[in-house]
Amino acid sequence: MDHLIGAGHMGGIIAQEYALAYGDNLRSLILCATFAEPGPFCLKLLEVWEVLASQCGIEATVRDVLLCCFTPGFYEEQPELAKEFDEGVATIGQTAEGFLSQLAAARDHNATDRLADISTPTLVLAGEEDILIPNRQSLRIHEHMPGSEWLTVPGGHAACWEFPDTFNDAVLRFIGRHRGS
Fold first, then answer.
1. Which domains does the chain have, with CATH numbers?
2. Which H helix or E strand runs over 3?
3. pLDDT of amino acid 9
4. pLDDT at position 1, please?
């Protein structure tokens, strides 16, 4: 694998662990909207989703997650895409048990003290209005990874869908600089 993009808290967690174990296989790493360890806000959010998934099921929980992924402007400016995401919840295909296991993995993740071991060129990217993973959480990754780059783009946690051109341009520029690394 040449380039790895870990998007969202879980994708970013997996990408961190992959880079720690197999960093020699990577030319670049992009960590989007994620944390090295959940702070108090993220822990509370995970706790709320655990209760919601246990008591109300996966569909209600994913609907709540989606509200945290997008900015209010997304719902106003892209109502058709918002509707598409909302309708997709019914076909999510994830069980409550699987979701609860994912929450436990996120809750228990702590790579902060190991981030300096990642020598792969890394871009830490965050949506300027991300309320699911506050920017300070992503910024901490950058601060613990010597040589990493920090960039924010418009949008929330799902900036890749809200502002795909801006997001993709940032990703492709970074990858382009590390094609031959």
1. 3-177 (3.40.50.1820)
2. strand 3-7
3. 81
4. 58
